[in-house]
Design brief:
The protein is mostly helical. It contains five helices and no strands.
Length: 115
Amino acid sequence: MSQQSLVSGIGLHWPILIASGVLEAVWVAALAASHRFRRPVPSIVFVVALALSMAGLAHAMTAIPTGTAYAVWVGIGAVLAVVWSMVTGAERVTRARVLLLLGLVLCVVGLKVVS
């Protein structure tokens, strides 16, 4: 089996979608760190991560239904953004928040499983 047929057989749409979800959390964190675009490095990270995240989402939506792709993209980004906020101390870590985040993760995994 050639490399081309292997890639088209398993597809890279899901890994690209997952990476795009991670980049969503990156651009959200960079946006917060940019202080209304007054800090150049976080502002540049924001623009680059946003563009790559959107491009990846658009690519994934060529093979994954729009609703599923968007829900997975937002779910990954939201969970990672909250986890980052908890790690940096911007948000409190509570049992309820952790359980709700786990619920979101299970829903994202569930969407992948049923697709």
